[in-house]
Structures are given as C-alpha cells and as structure tokens.
Amino acid sequence: MGCGNSSLNNKKSEKALKAALVIQNWYRGCRAWLRARQQYALAIFESIEYADEQSQMQLSDFFSFLLENYTHLHKKDPELSCQLRKSTKDRQDYMGLIEVPDSYDGPRLQFPLTFTDIVLLVEAFKHQKILHAYYVLEVLFETKKFLKQKLNFTHIKTSPSKGLTICGDLHGKLDDLFLIFYKNGLPSGNNPYLFNGDFVDRGRNSIEVLMILLVSFLVYPKDIHLNRGNHEDFMMNMRYGFTKEILNKYKLHGKKILQTLEDVYTWLPIGAIIDNKILVIHGGIAESTDLNLLHCIERNKMKSVLLPPASRNSTEPEKMKVGEIIMSGIITPKDVSSEQLSKKEWEQIIDILWSDPRGTKGCFPNTGRGGGCYFGPDITTNILNKYHLKRIIRSHECRPEGYEICHDGKVITVFSASNYYEDGSNRGAYIRLGYGTALEFFQYQVTNSTCLKPLHQRVNVIESSAIRILKEKIISRKTDLTHTFQLRDYSKSGKLSVTQWAFSMESILGLNLPWRTLSLYLVKIDKDGCVDYMSSFQDIHIEKPVEEAESTLIETLYRYRSDLQMVFNIIDSDCSGQISMEEFWTTWKLFSSHYNVQIDDSQIDELANTMDLNKDGSIDFNEFLKAFYVVHTYEKLNTSNAKHSHY
C-alpha cells in the first residue's frame, strides 16, 4: 500500500510540475510579447521625434537660403518684425519697469539668494504657484553674470567626502525633479549636482524646472553645474513648447523673459570634465572632435543651431547685405568676424550637442536627427585615448530604463525624464559618482494612475498613443503614398505584398521602423497575406478648414505646420498672434520655393482670405494651424488576428 501511495503522489507531483511549467512558459511568452510591443511603440515615438528634429535642423538651410537669395521681404517696412538675432537689453532697462504688487501670493526671493530660497521655490512650485516675472528676470540676469565667469568646460573634482550626482534631460518634467530631490536630497555645498542639458521644452513646467536649477546654481555656483543641451536654444523653444509656455504664463512680460533667456543660453558651459577622467557632454562626439579647440571657442557666439555662420567668401555684396534688409538686428559683413563662430567652430559645438552613439564602427552623419553624427566604439576609443580620458557620460536619448551603457562601458547615456513619450513609456535615472568608486545608477518613475495599472494595460496605452501619431504621419503623406502604392500595383488589384507595402512606407515616410510587424496594426491583410493598401488611411482624415481646398494643399500645410508655425512666430515678433496677409503669403512663397513645394499661389491666397474671417487683413495663425487637425474616427487598434490580441 505504501508503495502505491508513493507512486500516486509522484504522479501528482509530476502533473503539478508540468502544469507549473506550462503556466510559467505561458507567462513568460505573454510578458515577452508585451515587452516586444512596448519596444515597437517606443521605436515609433523615437523615430517620429527624430524625424521632427531633422525637419527642425533643415530650417537652418531655409534661413541661410533666406539670407542669401532675397533682398527684401516687405517693401513697405524695411526693418520688418522678423528678428533672428535680437539685441538683449540690460538689467536696468527691464527691472525698473516691473513692480511686484502686494496682491502677489507667490514666492518672494531675497537677493543675494540662499538655501532658504531654494526650499521656498520648491515648496511654492509644489503648490502650482507662479514665480513673478520680476524675480524670473532677476534670476536670469544674475545667472548670466555668474555664467560669464565660467569656462567652456567645467572642471569638477570629487573627494572622499563629496561625490557628484549627474542628471540627464528633464524637459520640463517638474515631478521628476521633485522625485530626484526626494530620493537624493536638495542641491547644496555637500550635495553637488551636474545637470546635463535639456532642462526645458516638451514638458509643461519648463520655467519652474529652469528656475529651480538656476537658483540652485546662484546659491552654490561651485557645486551646481549646468551644461548646455540642444534645447537650450531660443529657436528650438519656438517649436517644442517653451516659448509658448512663457508667453502663456507671463503675458505681460513674456517677451522680456524670452529675450533675456536667449542670452543666458549662450553662456552655459558646453561640457564638464570630472577628475580629469570623465567627459560629460549633452550629445556626443565625432571623429573630428577637438577638445582643445572647444576649450577656446567663444561659446556665447553660438546663438542657435538654426543660425549657421554666414558665408565669408561671398563676392556679391548685395547678398551679404540681405540681413540689413530682411531682418533687423542681423549681422552685416563688417562685423561677421566678431559676431559669429567660424563654420568649423559651429560644427564642433553641433557635434557635441546633437550626436548619438551607435554600435557600428566609424563616424557618419546623424540622418535620424539631421544634426551631429553617429559615432561608433572605435571613435569613442580614439577620442578618449587622445585626451587621456576614461569615459563619456551623455544624455540626449530617451532610454527605456533611464540609462544605457555601450561601447564596452566607455559611453553611458543618462536620461532623467520618466514617462517621456507617454505615461509608463520609460523610467528616469540619475548617476551617483563617488571619489574613486564605481558609478551608481538610480532609477525611478513618477507614479500616476496609468503607471499603477498592470503591464498589459500600460502597454495598451503606450501602443495606442504611438499608433495614433504614426497614423497622423501617414495621413499627411496620403497623396504620395497612394501614388507609390499604385505604381507597385501592376495588376491594379488594390493590393500589395506586405514587403512591397513596407518598402513603400519606408521610402515615402523615411521612418526607420519595423513596418512588416506594424502592418498588423495599420492595414487590412487578407488570407493570402496581401495588403489592402488603401486601408492604410482608414478611419482617419485631416479636417479641412476650407472644403474646396485640394487634398494636396491640406496635406502639405499639415506636413509643414510645425515649421511654418516657427517661421511665423519669428515674424510675429510682438507676440500678438496676428500676422498680416502679405506676411502670410510672402513667407509661404519663400518657404515653398526653398522646399520645392509645388502649390498654386492662388490656392494659398484663397485659403488665407477665407481664414481671415473678420476681414481685418490679418490672420490668427495659431487658430489657422489648429484648423488642420487630424480626426481619428476609430481609436482601437486592428486586432482582428486573435493570435496578436492584447493579453
């Protein structure tokens, strides 16, 4: 009997073990599939983000084209309102005109600033208080004064009693900054920080993040270090949200703040070197990176990545005088040498602000972003050896875990904005560096209702958002895609193979994405594995502001809406939100000429006149752009294939 019971128990144990293994394998499979979907979604976000930055970088060509090819924009007003290089006023020009009323209930800073002011500011921002424009300007002017005393590269020494905390991109994510301070402590003389650029843009609390960092720097200028990122750039801010945030929060003095901030950016150090071993820069390096030259560059001449140095070899004086006619405040031939970096110097700074590491050997153009380069492990080794360094710490790229180590441990990326693309999309991280000790990585994620949900629900949210913005990208190129599909559809069946469809998507959109996998979410596929290519545009369309307008015109304006918004923001220098009909037409004419966009001028005239509803001769361009919004009539993903249903 004993033997029989033992045998029976063994069989039950085997069954239980097999069942546990089945469940375990199923769970692992589901989790792996969810992680794969999450990676696809992040790839979409990143690819579209970089494509947008590439478009932004290409505007530098447009502005150069503007200066070199046109002698006037507005015959009636030779000074124009378009000012790409504004002259910043001194402190006394602003501060004497601004008063802080007794009714103001926000934080009141006391100069010279102390640790108490850091605490005061943090607590006030936790309660959604707005710092008065008077104090914002005081902080900016004081910061500029201290920054002008800094070298291009800050040389930092750690000691047994004092380490260093390194933070990457924050992008206006105030909750992330609060969480870092909660976990790691407020900045102080005994708790030094290095913030590695991109403090602003994208997030909705950029001014609050910036003020906390600058006030901390003013209190502890030897212990709080600030590097310039590619978003510490007044023209980048016009596109990615910080300019709009300032003008919304400071309606009366916003323009003064922006003009002062533009000058502060130029004085930020462009890098740091820790213990003569670790190079900390925002982006990366190139094979031509010359740290000796970068140490000597007059960094304050780097106004914006979108304002490359003017040609110094032109023999046509009329071209060189364009700046006097097109843009008030633009440089002229007589002061080019004193006001601008050389092309080589400008490219050196672009490389360290915009470049990204890759696993492939060599150095080649950063085609994803349109600026800087991709640098391989051999380039890293060469540069480190040349300057007797051990490691590069950089930021600039959102990483799923908040940090990433590559190039055999010689390059470390740290990114401090969690939930960057979407709630639950990524963790944030910071690095603790002690004297003579290994680097410590601390990860976190600001918790909200989305992050508390199970993994499959979080992935669904991220995936849905990614597919949504990808569909908007697709619909903006509907005409071009349809033409390409039809050229490949030799039998005129309305169908293509998945491979042909994927190749068409890549060739038109230029997004480096796994299109074959994404086809499951974007198009209808029949039982033979063929794609109904017109289903690429199902359940989505661009709302037409003018019903009679051609679809090509609507798609084109939608595609370039961000570029045009930025150009018009520059024209609208008084920040009124209004531009004249002539400015609208002329700028579009220049823009379409440079980008070789073939649209009948009469269509633009008709559209502009129709949008001028009150017939006052000007256009509220923000409303104009908002008219070109994408309508999603069906929000759910294509999950008809049960094999790929959400777990």
From TrEMBL:
GO MF term list: calcium ion binding; iron ion binding; manganese ion binding; protein serine/threonine phosphatase activity
Reaction catalysis annotation: O-phospho-L-seryl-[protein] + H2O = L-seryl-[protein] + phosphate; O-phospho-L-threonyl-[protein] + H2O = L-threonyl-[protein] + phosphate
InterPro entries per record: Calcineurin-like_PHP, EF-hand-dom_pair, EF_Hand_1_Ca_BS, EF_hand_dom, Metallo-depent_PP-like, PPP_dom, PPP_phosphatase, Ser/Thr-Pase_EF-hand_contain
The entry's keywords: Calcium, Hydrolase, Magnesium, Manganese, Metal-binding, Protein phosphatase, Repeat
Obligatory cofactor(s): Mg(2+); Mn(2+)
Magnesium recorded as keyword: yes
Catalytic EC class: hydrolase
A single GO BP: detection of stimulus involved in sensory perception
EC number of this enzyme: 3.1.3.16
Pfam families for this protein: EF-hand_7 (PF13499), Metallophos (PF00149), PPP5 (PF08321)
Domain EF-hand as annotated: residue spans: 559-594, 599-634
Top-level taxon of origin: Eukaryota
Family membership: Belongs to the PPP phosphatase family.
Protein name per UniProt: Serine/threonine-protein phosphatase with EF-hands
Lineage of source species: Eukaryota, Metazoa, Chordata, Craniata, Vertebrata
